[in-house]
Every structure is written in C-alpha cells, then in structure tokens.
Amino acid sequence: MNIAFIGLGNMGGPMALNLHKAGHTVQAFDLSTSACEKLAAEGVAIATDAAAAVQGAEVVISMLPASAHVEALFLGNGTQAGVLPLLPAGALVIDCSTIAAASARKVADAAQAQGVQFIDAPVSGGTGGAIAGTLTFMVGGDAAVLERARPLLEKMGANIFHAGAVGAGQTAKICNNMLLGILMIGTSEAIALGVANGLDPKVLSEIMRRSSGGNWALEKYNPCPGVHENAPASKGYAGGFGTDLMLKDLGLSQENATAVKASTPLGGLARNLYAMHSIAGQGGLDFSSIIQMVGKKD
Ligand code: NAD
C-alpha cells in the first residue's frame, strides 16, 4: 500500500519504519533534516515536502506535536497550504498525534466534505512501544473506517481500541495521559523519599512494583537513572516523551475538564508542576525528569 507518513520524531520515526519493514511503500516527510536522515538511512523514501509525500498515497498518517501542526498540515494556515485538497476521494487519513478532540473533528469534517475518510488514532506505549510495534491505539471514528485502517495499525501496535466517534480517541488519550502525568510525579516523590532515607532506588522500585503502588513507570519507565537501562532517565532524559508534550496533554485535559465541568484537581496540580519544570528550562527533557524537582539536590 502507498502510505504518506508526516512527522518522523521520537514516535513517528519508528512507526514509519515498522510500516516500511512490513513491505508498504512509505513516502515520509519531516521538517527536521536529521529526522529525515535517520529514516533515509533505513531505506525509507523521503519526500521534499508534505505535498510531495501525499502524491499517490492511499493513506496519510500524521504524527505531529499538537493541534496547530495537524490543522496546518491538512487544512493550511496563513503561511502554508493544507494537503487535504490534494487527496482523492476514497483516501484515508489516520492522525496519531495527541491533539484536541475539537481539532480532530474539524479535520474530519473537512475530510468528509471531499469524500476522504478520517480517524483519530492517538497512541500510548512510549518510544519503546513505537520501536517494538506494540503501541496501544485509541481510535475515534466509524467502525468501518477503523476496520480499513486495522491492518496498518497492527503493524505498529499490539492493542487497538475503538473509543467511539471521531474525537473519542483523543478524549481517551488525554484521560490516560492525565493519569500518567500524575503517576509519574507520585512515583518520583515516593522514590525521592526512599532515597532521602538511604534506600537503594532499585530495591525500593522493585518492592513498590510488586506491591500496591505498582504502575507503568515502575514497570518500564523508572524516573531514577540506572534503574531501567533503556528508560530515558538512564540516557540523560533524552528522547522519550518531552516535558512540553506532557504539559500540552495536561493543558488539553484541563481545558476539557472546564468545558464539561469535571473536577480534576490532581490533573491541575500536575499541569502546574510540569509547567514549573518547563519554565526552569527542562521542557525538552523527557517528562520523567520531573523527579529532579522533587528529589534531594546534594
Ligand atoms: P517529537 O517532537 O519527537 O516529533 C514531532 C516531529 O514532528 C518532529 O520531528 C518535528 O520536526 C515534526 N514536525 C512538526 N511540524 C511538522 C510539519 N508541519 N511537517 C512535518 N513535520 C513536522 O514528538 P513525539 O514524541 O514523536 O510525539 C508526537 C506526538 O505523539 C505528540 O502529539 C505526542 O504528544 C504524542 N505521543 C508521544 C509519545 C512519546 O512517548 N514520545 C507517546 C504517545 C504519544
């Protein structure tokens, strides 16, 4: 199948590569030259721009930072033309970015007006899951469109959930990430408390992982350097899931909570803590670096 893949960052790069390895014809594009070079080195074809990438594509997959990038890619903005008008009727758009549900619906409506199918399919599972092809997809859109997309999603993920109509995948995703953001801060606090009392973070983490405090951070993504060899914490908090991306997701969950009059006090507190961490200059580090805010500095 001919696939255009736009956005080759920490997540999109390995996802596009998995589609390429599965035998699909992938035309990829990213604004970052180094992101393109990484994929080119693996044999993936790189287009000169997004418009060139979607030429002849039956499916367009996007993995971009935030709502503004996705809207600009498909619908255009003051400075760039959108690629949606370039797609023939019957094409399929799969947006895997984490964006506002309202933005997903806006792109879906424009797509529908020209006979193009759309699903929002944000993911969970981190860069490890993207590389291994074991991501969880949370899909919003028609069940029949999901079935059309499923064979491709199965090359990038292990769990595929239909959350509901267009936008529902995004709503599920921000609920999950609000919980993840809170859990990472709680996990960091607990480890920092143990370390301040002289406990070995590896031993404490293993005790909590197998006890009632067990969670995904303790399983796979420990915020303390040296506990999980492949976690961003053990690589200077490079790669992974940026603090600023977590801040964006907690902003989305807080905006949504305001809109539906839900009470999310810990989500609000977590958003502010990641904002302080970002303002302190750590926005580009993986979000697990939040442990630096709560840990003892000596
Ligand atoms: P990233 O910053 O590593 O990659 C984003 C890429 O998009 C960059 O390479 C950037 O150059 C490119 N880009 C931006 N605008 C572009 C445009 N107009 N055209 C082409 N390329 C453009 O981010 P990421 O970690 O890969 O995350 C991507 C999305 O996935 C975000 O919405 C994020 O919230 C979500 N997400 C990330 C993770 C994670 O663990 N990193 C996990 C789940 C979901």
Automatic annotation (TrEMBL):
<dbReference type="InterPro" id="IPR013328">
    <property type="entry name" value="6PGD_dom2"/>
</dbReference>
<keyword id="KW-0101">Branched-chain amino acid catabolism</keyword>
<dbReference type="InterPro" id="IPR011548">
    <property type="entry name" value="HIBADH"/>
</dbReference>
<dbReference type="InterPro" id="IPR006115">
    <property type="entry name" value="6PGDH_NADP-bd"/>
</dbReference>
<dbReference type="Pfam" id="PF03446">
    <property type="entry name" value="NAD_binding_2"/>
</dbReference>
<dbReference type="InterPro" id="IPR008927">
    <property type="entry name" value="6-PGluconate_DH-like_C_sf"/>
</dbReference>
<protein>
    <recommendedName>
        <fullName>3-hydroxyisobutyrate dehydrogenase</fullName>
        <ecNumber>1.1.1.31</ecNumber>
    </recommendedName>
</protein>
<dbReference type="GO" id="GO:0051287">
    <property type="term" value="F:NAD binding"/>
</dbReference>
<feature type="domain" description="3-hydroxyisobutyrate dehydrogenase-like NAD-binding">
    <location>
        <begin position="167"/>
        <end position="293"/>
    </location>
</feature>
<dbReference type="InterPro" id="IPR002204">
    <property type="entry name" value="3-OH-isobutyrate_DH-rel_CS"/>
</dbReference>
<dbReference type="InterPro" id="IPR036291">
    <property type="entry name" value="NAD(P)-bd_dom_sf"/>
</dbReference>
<feature type="active site">
    <location>
        <position position="173"/>
    </location>
</feature>
<dbReference type="GO" id="GO:0008442">
    <property type="term" value="F:3-hydroxyisobutyrate dehydrogenase activity"/>
</dbReference>
<dbReference type="GO" id="GO:0050661">
    <property type="term" value="F:NADP binding"/>
</dbReference>
<dbReference type="Pfam" id="PF14833">
    <property type="entry name" value="NAD_binding_11"/>
</dbReference>
<keyword id="KW-0520">NAD</keyword>
<comment type="pathway">
    <text>Amino-acid degradation; L-valine degradation.</text>
</comment>
<keyword id="KW-0560">Oxidoreductase</keyword>
<comment type="similarity">
    <text>Belongs to the HIBADH-related family.</text>
</comment>
<dbReference type="InterPro" id="IPR015815">
    <property type="entry name" value="HIBADH-related"/>
</dbReference>
<feature type="domain" description="6-phosphogluconate dehydrogenase NADP-binding">
    <location>
        <begin position="2"/>
        <end position="164"/>
    </location>
</feature>
<dbReference type="InterPro" id="IPR029154">
    <property type="entry name" value="HIBADH-like_NADP-bd"/>
</dbReference>
<dbReference type="GO" id="GO:0006574">
    <property type="term" value="P:L-valine catabolic process"/>
</dbReference>
